[in-house]
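Hello,

I think I submitted the 2'-monophosphoadenosine-5'-diphosphate job twice by accident. Can you confirm which output corresponds to this input? Input:
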Amino acid sequence: MMSDKRDKKRLAVIGHPVTHSRSPAMQNAALAELGLAGEWTYEAIDVAPDEFERRVRAMVGEGFAGANVTVPHKGAALILADKLSETVREIGAANTLSFANGEIYADNTDAKGLLRALPASPQGERVLVLGAGGAARAVVWALLGEGAHVEVWNRTELRSRNLCEKLGGTPVTAPDGPSYRLIVNATSVGLRGEDPFGELPLSADGFSGGQTVVDLVYGAGTSQLLAAAEIAGAAVVDGIEVLVRQGALSLEIWTGREPPLDVMRAAAREP
Ligand code: ATR
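Support: Only one job matched these inputs. Its output is below.
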């Protein structure tokens, strides 16, 4: 290739919508910290679902080395990839693409990212996962792999049953919130300001001090879910921390460098 972009390595997050994403700020801060900012760039690209495949295939020839893929493209990313990691194959969703030798390689850093964000191993613990979409699949796969006893609730029961048939875990229709050591919200509830206690089978006074509560949804400030859990004395992990951990793993895949976690965290949390 005689492209003048040969020495530039472009990265991006592809989503729809994507303007709210903290990934460009976080990844560009990391690239600067690693001394790679002159060579590498990270941008946000809004791509509608019907344009996704054409756009990603074009990126292969536009100097891109890789991309993060977010809502609603994580399933499509797996379908168009030439090679899949074992994790992607098992979870059925991809969030990290790498482009090399004209081929698209798909990986999933959401699962390991979640585990790294937890304060303690969930091994042997009873855990509740809310949701049955791509995010929930990665969470359930990760927790089962650690030896947790996973129960899955979803608004549409058929989807939680299907998820458990494929991955394992037990579908549950009326979970008893306080009885779990770990609760992970992997639904999109809260993203558009919904009341989590109206939409999810949890009550605001149903948390306890021995629990860890994770909310993958992030926005400005603490989510209603985590605010209630914090009042009860539960340990909380927000969506930004999980974003930082998955983003760090993606950056390592692309650059082979050790990601500067503190710099990424600070940039992701900047207002
Ligand atoms: P992702 O890939 O990010 O997980 P998704 O596949 O669209 O996105 O999944 C969104 C999840 O949030 C689903 O579990 C969805 O429940 P349904 O399967 O019943 O649609 C859940 N969800 C979205 N809005 C919800 C709401 N208001 N109440 C409860 N669950 C909701």
